[in-house]
Amino acid sequence: MKTILSQQQIGLTIKRLAHQILENYTQEIETVIIGIQPRGIFLSDKIVAEINKIIHPSSIKYGKLDITFYRDDVRTELHVANKTEISFDIENKKVVLIDDVLWTGRTIRAALDALLDFGRPAKVELCVLIDRRFNRELPIQPDYTGRAIDTLVSEKVKVMWKENNDKDEVILIQ
Amino acid sequence: MKLSTKHLLGIKDLTKEDIQLILSTAINFKDVLQRPVKKVPSLRDVTIVNLFYENSTRTRISFELAEKRLSADTINFTVSGSSAAKGETLLDTVNNILSMKVDMVVMRHSVSGAPHFLAKHIPAAIVNAGDGINEHPTQALLDAYSMQEKFGNLEGLKVAIVGDILHSRVALSNIYLLQKMGAEVVVSGPPTLIPKYITEALGVKVEYNIKNALQWCDVANILRIQLERQNQPLFSSLREYNLAYGINKQLLESLGKEITIMHPGPINRGVELDSDVADGPYSIILNQVENGVAVRMAVLYLLANREG
Q1: Residue B100: how many CB atoms within 10 A of its CB?
Q2: Residue A63's pLDDT is what?
Q3: Lowest mean pLDDT: which of A70-79, A104-113, B53-62, B151-160?
Q4: Please, which residues bridge with residue A61 across strands?
Q5: A80 to chain B: which residues are within 8 Å by CB?
Q6: pLDDT tops 90 at residue A73
Q7: To 10 degrees, what angle do helices B169-180 and B16-32 make?
Q8: Which one of B20, B42, B48 makes the best mutation probe of the A interface by having the most chain A beta carbons within 10 Å?
Q9: How far apart are CA B11 and CA B136, in angstroms?
C-alpha cells in the first residue's frame, strides 16, 4: 500500500483544479460543472466550493449526473442507480465533467452519452483527481488532472474522503 | 445488488429486498421519464416479445412504452390474428418466437399458472403481466410505488381492498406484497366475491361492511367487477352492487377523514366507483398509470441482467 496523495496534497490539488477551471472561463460561453455519481460528487462538491470562494457573487451552475443506465456492462454487472440532478439547460454551454479516477475511460464514455440526452453543449471538458495513464480502453483524455500516475492493471487506486473515512487520502494497493 | 429470481412470475416468489430494489430502481426511471429525452440505452441489445392472450389496454401499452424507453426491441403478439387461433399450443408458439432470438417474454394469459409453465420449459426470462385469477405482479408493484410515493413508507399503512376479491389477480398480488412490506390489509365486498378461507390462507381480515372498512383504512384499492370471469351470478344486479359497495362522494364525505382511492383500471363507472370519486381529488388512479411505466422499466432492467 502506497499513499499517492495525502490530505494536504489533496487540498492543494483541489485549489489548483478550481483555479485552472476558472482560468479557462470566458465571458462568451457560460461554464457549468457536472459531477459524476456516485464518487465524483465528493470531488466536484469541493471544487465547486473552492470556485465559490474565489468568485463573488458565485454564479456557476452545478449538477450531478448518474450514468448507470448508460453503462456498456448493464447486462453483466448490476449497479445501483443514483440521482441525476441537472436543473439547468446545458445547451450551448461549456460543461466541465468531474470524476475521481480516470482509468479505462468507459465511465466517461457513458457520461458523454448521458450528457447529450440533456442537450448539445458547446464544449465538454474533463477534470479528474487521478489519471491512471495506462490501460485506457477508449480514446479519452482529461483536460484538468490532479495527479497522473502509472499503474498496473492488477493494482487498485482508492480515493477516500473524510465523509466516509477519517481523512482525505488517495492510496495505491498493489 | 440483484433480484433473487430469474423471472417475475408473482409477488409470492419475491423477497422484501427484491421489492425494495424494484421500487428504488423505479424512482430513478421515473426521473428519466421527466427528462427531455425520455429514454436510456440500457437494453439496446435485448429483444422482448409481448404475448397477450387476453385483452389489455394499460398493461400492454405500459409494458411496450417501458421497453421502448429502455431501447429494447419489441414484438407484439395478440391472440386474434395469430396462429394460436389456428390451434397452435402455447409452448409451440413461444418456442417458435424464441428461435428468432428473443431474450424476454412478457405474457398475459387467461389460465392461472401459464407463465410458471413457460418458465419451466424455456430459457428466456418471463414477466407475468397477469395470469388468470392468480397474480398480476407489476400491478401490485406499481400500486406499492404509488402508495410509497404518497405516504413515504408502506410499513404500518392500512389498505382496504374492495370488491371482486375472488376473481382478482390484482388483489392476490397486492395482498402478498403489502404483507411482505409490513402493511395491514383488510378485504371488503359481498360474501359471494370473497374467497371462503382467505383469512386462514392469507391472514387478511374480512370486513363485509364497506363503511367500516373505509373508516379504518388510509388507502382503498377498488377493484373492477369482472363479469367476464363470473360463470354464475354472484350478486343480483350491477345496480344493487353499486348501492351496497359502490364508492361515491357522499360515502367518502361521511367518513370524516381523508382516504386515498386507487383502482387498477379499467373502471366500470357507476358500478364499483362513481365518476365524482374516480375523477375527484382523493383519486391517484392516473398517478398509478404514470408510475406503471417506471416500475415496469425497473423490472425489465433488473431481469435483463445476466450476472453470475
Answers
A1: 9
A2: 96
A3: A70-79
A4: A32
A5: 1, 24-25
A6: no
A7: 110
A8: B42
A9: 8
What pLDDT score does B235 carry?
Answer: 86
Q: What is the mean pLDDT of chain B?
A: 93
Q: CATH number of the domain that A154 lies in?
A: 3.40.50.2020
Q: Which cell goes with A21? A: 477551471
DSSP 8-state assignment for residue B96: H
Side chain identity, residue B217: C
Q: Which residues in chain B are contacts of A75 at CB distance < 8 A?
A: 45-46, 304-306
Enter the C-alpha cell of residue B286.
392516473
From the CA of A106, how many Å to the nearest CA of chain B? 14
Checking if the pLDDT of B82 tops 90, the result is no
Domain count, chain A: 1
Q: What is the mean pLDDT of residues B253-273?
A: 94
CB contact at 8 A, A171 and A1: yes
Q: What is the pLDDT of residue B308?
A: 45
What are the grid coordinates assigned to B1, written together? Answer: 445488488
What type of residue is B269? R
Full set of structural domains in chain B with CATH: 11-136+289-304 (3.40.50.1370), 137-284 (3.40.50.1370)
Residue type, B284: I
Nearest Cα to B251, choosing from B229, B225, B276, B283?
B276
Report whether the peptide linkage leading into residue B266 is cis, meaning its omega lies within 30 degrees of zero. yes
- Tracing cell 408458439 back to the chain, one arrives at B93
Residue type, B84: A
Q: Which of A37, A67, A69 to mutate to test the interface with B (most CBs of B within 10 A)?
A: A69
| C-beta separation of B31 from A118 below 8 A | no
Q: Would you give the distance in Å from CA B130 to the centre of its chain?
A: 7
Identify the pLDDT of residue B228. Answer: 80
- Helix-then-strand count for chain B, H and E: 12, 9
**Per the confidence metrics, is the pTM higher than 0.80?**
yes
